[in-house]
Amino acid sequence: MKNIVLVSALAAAGLFVGSAGGRPFEHKRDIVTEIVYVTETVADVIVYVDGSGVPYSTTTSERVGAETAPSTTSEISLSTSKVVLSKSDIRTSSSSAKVQVEAALSTTSEIALSTSAVRVTSSPSAVTPQSTPQAISEKPKSASTTPSSKPTAVDTTCTTTTLTPSLVTPEYTSPTSTSTTSTTTTKASGPAPQSPPPAKPAPTEQAGADTMPLGITWDAYTDSSGCKSPAQVASEFSRMKDYKVIRIYGKDCNQIALAVQNALKNGQKLMGGAYVDTSGGGEDVGDVIQTYKNAIDQYAGGNWDVIQLFSVENERINERRMTAQQVVDVIGSARAQLRRAGYNGLVGATETAPATIDNPSICAASDVVMVNIHAFFDRNTQAADAGPFVQSQVQLVKFACNNKRVVVTESGWPHQGNANGAAVPSPENQRAALDSIRAAFSSDMFLFSSFDSGWKANTASTFNAERFWGIL
């Protein structure tokens, strides 16, 4: 009798559970505030009934603790996640009255990098992700690797007992680990933390494919305005060997042939130029180009690679000795003659920054913008700020010249002369200024000048410093 009653009670319990299973979840909802599943496994259920068959007491010989799986979905920060619960599949066993509840959780996020479905049952071995946790932004190299930032949206953690969103930093375990914990992270916003960027390397004197290495200027005259001897030229080029490009200004004193020979010997390049002055006293650009061709043919086998760029004049517009249109015309004429001679490099004109900014036609006519910029002539600039000052002037020139490449063809600081406001000439200040310029420029820069120019005249307009710009 007791067994019959027991079986009847178990069957009734199974019918009750089976009829209740899954219906509340047929209507999918966008937001579920909290759903709690309680799974309770019992064994050897004994139901006592009275003579009328009405149960009045139930006992069990073993009780297994309940396992709960709370699931909460919230709209947090920028997350637009939706949690949809599928129809539950609840099965009963009449022999043991053991109830298994399986719920499939499907999460779809518009911001997540991937979608992962997770199955949860009362058995620890059933807690297995259906796909790899691809939503994690970076795969750790070992099981000890832990993300260092806090997620800004819903993070879903799956364990053997709970499935709950979390806003705290999750601890990630490599999929290859033997741990039974699997974590899937869905990030709605905020980049992953990055290691501090490496320190910016100091500029080096190496030029890129479209720039020139640090250069220096040189002239061919002695202090008494005579011409330097071939031996003196060779000695000075040797002293300039650390500078890979040497700027020369004209053709007198046989400087073109001497410069080509010594540059080739020392592995250096040249910035060539003509001293054109249409108002009188200047050089003829055609004669200068022919002189270059003769030297290239004789000492370089006709190879113009030793010449990096060519300037047709030096500050003639700034001194109001030529107009912008005259300079533009000379640039066009020189380029055509140089091309016929075999030179296919850069051609332009050298001016000060203000003259270049005021005459953008010079930029348009030139293959590259060439400017002389001296921080010493700005009375508000100290020697240690020479580099940033030159940089600021280059940016102004680039803006006026449609962002064209700029080569600074002169920049330096005198070691003797009169002060110009905060700009004070001295050996110490010259070193400070040159250090500042070198820190700001690793290429497309010619330091002025290699040696003092005793042949020049000191004037009040140049603060009696014109002779004292030599570096070596």
Automatic annotation (TrEMBL):
Keywords: Hydrolase, Signal
Domain of life: Eukaryota
InterPro entries: Beta-glucan_modifiers, GH
Signal peptide range: 1-22
GO BP of this protein: cell wall organization
Cellular compartments annotated: Cell envelope
Record's compositionally biased regions (Polar residues): 116-135
Record flagged with keyword Hydrolase: yes
Comp. bias intervals (Low complexity): 142-192
Region Disordered: start-end pairs: 116-210
UniProt key word Cell inner membrane: no
A GO molecular-function descriptor: glucan endo-1,3-beta-D-glucosidase activity
GO cellular component, one term: extracellular region
Predominant location: other
Record family assignment: Belongs to the glycosyl hydrolase 17 family.
Name of this protein: Glycoside hydrolase family 17 protein
